[in-house]
């Protein structure tokens, strides 16, 4: 559980990032929204403080960090304690599972994706948002990872690596959205969201069961 420690120890630092980088956050929200199905019961795995689940109207969340759970509940999310590798949900419980910047903090990526697959209904969607390690921002985060309480315990992935994991799990019918095309300090308005990946630093992958 070492990867949850920064979220227990620094919840206000985590929250402050979103306030200081408001347009980055709003751009990421739009990129996630572009891949969401129009309806269906959903859960965010690794809901954190609810920064994505709340505005996206996902009312159920799973989160291992106590400090994050408290903030998410204040945002109206029904939060259950647990980890992605052992989801406390029945098979085929959801039409949608969301993971935003969660995959880099998993202890066992393969096990977590198998669990997401299990709790999704047939044709349900898994949505993953991540910083592509091959992107400009991904390379910066990797270079300076030891300067961040959060990223020093993270494992960064490329989009292709995540897609490979998803295919091996049984997921299919992939879709992609990308945003964040400039350095964070230069972003003073919402960034465009475009299909595909390979240019934007923040990429959203949609995969269907």
Number of strands: 8
Order of helices and strands: HHHEEHEEHEHHEEE
- Tell me the structural class: alpha/beta
Q: Quick one: CATH class? A: Alpha Beta
Percent helix: 25-40%
Give the uncertain stretches in residue-range form.
none
**Major beta sheet, specifics?**
8 strands, mixed
Description:
The protein is an alpha/beta fold. It has one domain: Vaccinia Virus protein VP39 (Rossmann fold, 3-Layer(aba) Sandwich). Helices cover 32% and strands 22% of the residues. Helix 4 links the parallel strand 2 and strand 3 (78-80). It is globular.
Question: What attributes does this structure have?
Answer:
alpha/beta; Rossmann fold; single chain; globular; 8 strands; 209 residues; eight-stranded mixed beta sheet
Topology:
Elements: H1 5-9, H2 11-20, H3 22-33, E1 42-45, E2 60-62, H4 66-74, E3 78-80, E4 94-100, H5 109-119, E5 120-131, H6 136-143, H7 159-169, E6 172-179, E7 194-195, E8 202-208
Parallel strand pairs: 1-2, 1-4, 2-3, 4-5
Antiparallel strand pairs: 5-8, 6-7, 6-8
Summarize the structure.
The chain has 209 residues and is α/β, with parallel strands linked by helices.
């Amino acid at each position: 559980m070492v990867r949850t420690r920064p979220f227990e120890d620094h919840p206000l630092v985590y929250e402050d990032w979103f306030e200081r980088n408001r347009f980055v956050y709003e751009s990421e929200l739009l990129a996630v929204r572009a891949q969401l199905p129009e309806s269906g019961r959903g859960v965010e795995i690794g809901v954190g403080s609810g920064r994505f689940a709340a505005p996206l109207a996902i009312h159920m969340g799973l989160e291992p960090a106590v400090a994050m759970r408290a903030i998410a509940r204040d945002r109206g999310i029904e939060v259950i304690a647990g980890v992605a590798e052992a989801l406390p949900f029945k098979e085929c419980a959801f039409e949608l599972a969301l993971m935003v910047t969660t995959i880099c903090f998993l202890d066992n990526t393969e096990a977590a994706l198998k669990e997401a697959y299990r709790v999704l209904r047939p044709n349900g969607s898994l949505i993953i948002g991540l910083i592509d390690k091959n992107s400009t921002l991904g390379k910066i985060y990797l270079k300076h990872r030891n300067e961040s309480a959060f990223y020093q315990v993270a494992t960064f992935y490329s989009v292709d690596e995540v897609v490979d994991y998803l295919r091996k799990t049984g997921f299919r019918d992939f879709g992609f959205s990308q945003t964040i095309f400039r350095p964070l300090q230069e972003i003073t308005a919402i960034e465009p969201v475009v299909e595909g990946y390979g240019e934007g630093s923040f990429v959203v992958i949609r995969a269907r069961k």
